[in-house]
Amino acid sequence: MQISARNAGVTTIFDVSGDIDFATSPEIRRSLLHEIRESRPSCVLMNLSRVRYIDSSAVASLVEGLKASRDFGSRFVLFGLSPYAREVLQLSRLLKVFEVYDNEEQALAS
Amino acid sequence: MKTFPQTRGRKAQPRGRAFADGVLLQLALPSDSSLLCVVRATVARLAALLKFSGADCRSVTRAVDEAMTNILRHSYKGRRHQPIVIQFKQLRQAQDTGLEVILWDEGPPIDCSKLRPRDFTQLRPGGLGLHFIRQAMDTVEFSRMGDANQLRLLKYTRGATATAEL
Hints:
- The complex is a heterodimer of chains A (about 110) and B (about 170).
- Chain A has about 110 residues and is an alpha/beta fold.
- Chain A has helices spanning about 25-40, 55-70, 85-90, 105-110; strands spanning about 1-10, 10-20, 45-55, 75-80, 100.
- Chain A is built from 4 helices and 5 strands.
- Chain A has a 5-stranded mixed beta sheet.
- In chain B, β2 and β3 (about 95-105) form a beta hairpin.
- Chains A and B meet through α2 and α3 of A and α1, α2 and α3 of B.
């Protein structure tokens, strides 16, 4: 799993690739919470287009990111979900809780 | 660090025994989260070989991944080098075939009264693993066998044709 951050104005975009599971989700959580709490971006976008697998700990990390964003008045947006990731969020009954877009252009324009 | 295999009079444990009828594969591995991806790849291929549908291959893989994660997180509380055994057995019934997966660990006994369904009315992290397992499998049974926890998972193919993309 790899995660990197880039900025687009007041938005932080996280590009994630690989599998997010119990072994790798702590890094996602750390990166997300550090960015939200320290940099205070007005919007956080999670690019999941290159994520192959997500498990319950990945979903938990995304929920923590969402909650932290709300606490700091930021938006938290997911885009590029694979059918698999979408399926897992659906099973978690969280698909409608997150702001989800098909691609980066749509997410930035939202 | 514990060693494999161990044979401490654990009657229900298959370690060190000849494979019983229907046993396709048995993994003995340490409690290391970096091995989750290896287990997922194994389960996905095995489920496809047994002609589960693509959706069922994904859900069985997810269930075993979550079950192993629960062992790492709750049974061993992050301690590494603890033993985990996963056995895969082919099921054959009159009109159906399937897969039995049994996971053993040597953590403290599980308190089944704490294994409650997740409350989906609250937005909170955690608690989804067991939900994924129950959603995926036809049977989910926890038991204590000697000094080991045993989780038995069953899934039937229901005549599906394998189209797994793994």
